[in-house]
Amino acid sequence: MKESLEELREEFQYNKTNSCVQCGYCLPVCPTYVTMRIETHSPRGRINLVKMVGEGKITDLSVLEEPLDLCLGCRACETACPTGVEYGSILESARAALVKRKKFKAPVRLLRKTMFQNVFPSKTAMNVIGNTFWLYEKSGLQKAMRKTGIMKKLPYHLGEFEATMSQAVSPAERKQAPSKVKAKGEKKYTVAFFTGCVMDAMFHRINRLSVQLLAEAGCDVIVIPNQTCCGALHAHSGEIEEAKRLAKQNIAAFEQENVDFIVNNAGGCGAMLHEYDHLLADDQEWADRAAAFTAKSRDISQVLVACGGLPNLRSNPEERVTYQPSCHMTNVQKVTEEPLNLLKSISGINFVEMEQANMCCGSAGIYNIINYDASMDILDEKMKHTKATGASVVITTNPGCLIQMKLGIEREKLSDSVRALHLVEYLAEAAGIS
């Protein structure tokens, strides 16, 4: 049965495209437009395509696939837009509409279902991945694989990404992770910590350090047992219904504890948690609960600053430090000053601002894997500004950004003189916490 134009308009959120006046303020802040110089790969170009669907001028929806697939979803355009266009909402609705109609080949359909429904949301599956990587590292297999050169032959450039991964933690350390940690000294807040899926599997040490820093700053920290993936990867891939299911599971889990804040340490996850109220706004049963959850959601930098910062932070003044902010922290959560305030509170720090710091690094979840060439073009632009700082330490606030900046350092052959760290890692170093 052929869909009516009204149905398409509703599904693609055509009404929201009318706010776009095609002024072009979004063009210089859009990474894909800056590197590609193609109008359909700009925010206003993509909006215009959706608008043409709503007006019946485009009937072959496959025309939208490449422009939407190549969008990073960094949402810098929203920050630059003078008319308040809800680009993120239009993008995710359009992607979901395309995925709903797309006939994936059987292997791709199976892979998507497995990853989105059985791997990312499963604590057990993600722990297995983390433990397997630890075994791969500690058994000597990692060194042997790298020595043979076979890593360079892996599909999707996975060998390059493997070389950027942080040191894995042992299964024993995972099991020993406490569910509750008391504040050191006077208690200022009680917080629940959001572990995430990829963060807990591949960056477990950063999660552990996050809990320690929160306790050091004066927080009682609770790690909620029944939490799951935030749903960001699902929403960005057009799997909106699955994203909603995960949001409901998280909301229900975190409602079990009476806390002041729900704290995350990943810009992408934090943005998704921050928008649960929008995701579930039309669900009468969950809308108010989602709004209550969102009201408590905070990035770790916000809570550390609210606690008055961390005591006795010291840096090596011989290191030049620069900061690469997460797009989703900046453009969605609107968290901009707190990470900088924490860095600048470190005694002896030699901090250097990066030009065009707010331009995306090209990571965007799994964008750098599925759109490798486009991602590397964006990363190369980012590395020009990174190198210009002369920094020996690059600070990030998101796991994807961390991997991407490490990859950029490798590509520029700077790994002997430059390192990339999550903000939490650097703060822990400055506080003498290992």
Number of strands: 9
Largest sheet: 5 strands, mixed
Shape: globular
In terms of structural class, how would the helical and strand content be classed? alpha/beta
Distance between the termini: 61 Å
Radius of gyration: 22 Å
Sheet with the most strands: spatial strand order: 1-3-2-4-5
Taken together, the total number of domains comes to: 4
Strand content: 5-15%
Q: What would the average pLDDT be, to the nearest integer? A: 95
Total count of helical runs of at least 4 residues: 26
- Which segments are poorly predicted (pLDDT under 50) over 5 or more consecutive residues? none
Please estimate the helix content: 40-55%
Enzyme class: oxidoreductase
Keywords: 4Fe-4S, Electron transport, Iron, Iron-sulfur, Metal-binding, Repeat, Transport
Pfam families: CCG, Fer4_8
Domain 4Fe-4S ferredoxin-type: 10-41, 61-85
List keywords for this structure.
434 residues, Fumarate Reductase Iron-sulfur Protein, Chain B, domain 2, 4 domains, five-stranded mixed β-sheet, four-stranded parallel β-sheet, 26 helices, globular
Task: Describe the model.
It is a single chain. By secondary structure, this protein is of the alpha/beta class. It folds into 4 domains: 10-101, Fumarate Reductase Iron-sulfur Protein, Chain B, domain 2, CATH 1.10.1060; 106-162, no CATH class; 172-306; 320-431, Rossmann fold. 53% of the residues lie in helices and 8% in strands. It is built from 26 helices and 9 strands. Strands 1-3-2-4-5 form a 5-stranded mixed sheet. It has a 4-stranded parallel sheet with strand order 7-6-8-9, sandwiched between helices. Strand 8 (393-396), helix 25 (399-411) and strand 9 form a beta-alpha-beta unit. Its cofactor is [4Fe-4S] cluster. It catalyses: glycolate + A = glyoxylate + AH2; (R)-lactate + A = pyruvate + AH2. This is Glycolate oxidase iron-sulfur subunit. Keywords: 4Fe-4S, Electron transport, Iron, Iron-sulfur, Metal-binding, Repeat, Transport. One of its GO terms (molecular function) is glycolate dehydrogenase activity.
